[in-house]
Write a structure and sequence with these properties.
Elements: E1 10-11, H1 20-33, E2 57-58, E3 73-78, E4 89-91, E5 94-101, E6 104-111, E7 117-122, E8 144-146, E9 149-153, E10 158-163, E11 168-173, E12 202-204, E13 207-210, E14 222-225, E15 231-234, E16 248-252, E17 255-262, E18 265-270, E19 276-281, E20 295-297, E21 300-305, E22 308-316, E23 322-330, E24 340-343, E25 346-351, E26 355-360, E27 366-370, E28 379-384, E29 387-392, E30 397-402, E31 410-415, E32 434-436, E33 439-444, E34 447-452
Parallel strand pairs: 1-23, 2-28
Antiparallel strand pairs: 3-34, 4-5, 5-6, 6-7, 8-9, 9-10, 10-11, 12-13, 13-14, 14-15, 16-17, 17-18, 18-19, 20-21, 21-22, 22-23, 24-25, 25-26, 26-27, 28-29, 29-30, 30-31, 32-33, 33-34
């Protein structure tokens, strides 16, 4: 189908009632639309940030439905992961991770069977840090594995492509090479780089999608040739500074696109050439950092930050242009850092001052909530085999929750056997948990724990 030219995007910011029956259908077909063009990993691998579809969902089954009092068995631990908040990528029996070690950022590879280090590769000459940093040094972004290569991003914007045996192929820098910039929200961030680059590199066909950001017309989104690192296109029509959220792939109305967060709302550019397709601008910009990754189901895109949540409907007109309309905007779900899971028509995640929340995706109404003081506290989560795995950002506790739109149902909880002594004064356990090949991976700075969660 010839989908070009798209023409200028059109924006309609009016509140409207959702078409709920259609939304329910979208929940089924949306996952199919989000499948990448090709995949060289197994279904039980975790090749990138937030998993295969970037939705915090693992397709694994046969996992423990309830934990013993002491928690699942600890298979192994690794105490040399260095400083940082990046989560691991796990593919084909290997664990890829980044961390601030030896005064610099490094990419390293472990044997998933025993946690033994196989190789390491420097990402830069100095680990990301800055004067007055109270949130923690080191890399923030999870590596991305694609076939026989792995991509890793350091906090200072250094992007490296290496083979899965640790050989450097190419590298580029979001600032010095691509003129990037991260949006400041006047919270004491260093100029230009904010709190450091955090998004996970996104592979789509021959492209490596990045969001370096821009202030001078270069564009927020950049497509690199994944084999060489050369620029293919930049989204010059969407010229904004980067946030900390990762981009996702979506197919809406038959058009493949990359959905990204900005400080002012949600936007999408065409996968073919980076042309701006649509842009939902909120009535007021987000007042704080934008971190969680959006989710798309059918024609609907949902996002949440510490300011609240937004659901929009994207439509394509006969002339090929796109329009975007509000479905709802509210403060029921104020998800600042830990991310959320959309499953079975409900959004699960932690919300500031409310605790853990189950929100109806179609209406935005709260189905239930559980106060943080009765749980592991605020934190991050992933979904697998009918359960949520929660990781408390302050408590370093992990709990297993049976998914239900009716009530909170906890099936086990345990604490990490050791806690990092290197967390900065304002830093917390912000690394996402990971499940791959029957194992649960939990990171606390330099400590990485691997638990057996298979039946």
């Amino acid at each position: 189908m010839d989908v070009f030219p798209f023409g200028p995007y059109q924006r309609l910011n009016r509140i409207r009632l959702p078409r709920i029956p259609f939304l329910r259908v979208c929940l089924v077909i949306g996952a199919i639309q989000l499948l990448p063009a090709k995949s060289q990993v197994k279904a039980d691998d975790w090749p990138q940030y937030q998993g295969l579809q970037r939705d915090n969902i693992s397709s694994e089954t046969g996992l423990l439905q309830e934990w013993p009092e002491a928690g699942p068995d600890l298979a192994w631990s690794f105490n040399k992961a260095g400083l940082g908040y990046s989560s691991p990528a796990v593919v084909d029996g290997r664990v890829y991770l980044t961390g601030g070690r030896n005064g610099r950022a490094e990419l390293f590879c472990l044997d998933a069977r025993n946690g033994k280090e196989i190789w390491s590769l420097p990402l830069n000459s100095k680990s990301f840090d800055f004067e007055g940093n109270a949130w923690g040094a080191g890399p923030r972004a999870a590596p991305t594995v694609d076939g026989d290569v792995v991509y890793a991003l350091a906090g200072d914007g250094q992007l490296v492509c290496a083979t899965t045996d640790g050989t450097l192929k190419w590298q580029t820098n979001m600032l010095s090479d691509l003129g990037g910039s991260i949006k400041s929200v006047d919270a004491g961030e260093p100029e230009t780089i904010g709190w450091g680059y955090c998004w996970g590199p996104l592979v789509d066909g021959d492209y490596l999608i990045c969001t370096p950001g821009s202030t001078d017309g270069k564009g927020l989104v950049t497509a690199l040739d994944k084999a060489t690192g050369e620029v293919v296109w930049r989204s010059k029509e969407l010229d904004e500074e980067a946030t900390y959220a990762s981009p996702i792939i979506a197919t809406i109305e038959g058009v493949r696109q990359y959905v990204v967060m900005t400080q002012f709302g949600i936007a999408a550019v065409a996968a073919e050439n980076g042309m701006l397709l649509w842009y939902y601008e909120r009535s007021r910009p987000y007042s704080d950092v934008v971190i969680p990754t959006p989710v798309c189901q059918g024609n609907y895109v949902y996002a949440s930050t510490g300011d609240g949540c937004d659901m929009v409907e994207v439509s394509r007109k006969d002339d090929g242009t796109f329009t975007v309309e509000d479905v709802y905007t509210n403060r029921n779900m104020k998800n600042s850092i830990g991310g959320f899971v959309l499953h079975g028509g409900y959004v699960f995640g932690t919300s500031e001052r409310r605790g853990w929340v189950c929100q109806d995706f179609a209406t935005g109404k709260i189905a239930w909530y559980q106060r943080a003081n009765k749980t592991v506290g605020d934190g991050s989560l992933i979904f697998a085999d009918g359960h949520l795995y929660l990781y408390g950002e302050k408590t370093a506790e992990i709990s297993l929750i049976e998914v239900s739109s009716e009530e909170w149902s906890e099936k086990g909880r345990f604490s990490l056997p050791a806690k990092s002594q290197n967390t900065a004064p304002s830093g917390k356990n912000w690394t996402r948990p990971v499940i791959a090949d029957g194992m649960l991976y939990i990171r606390d700075q330099e400590l990485l724990f691997c638990y057996r969660v298979k039946k």
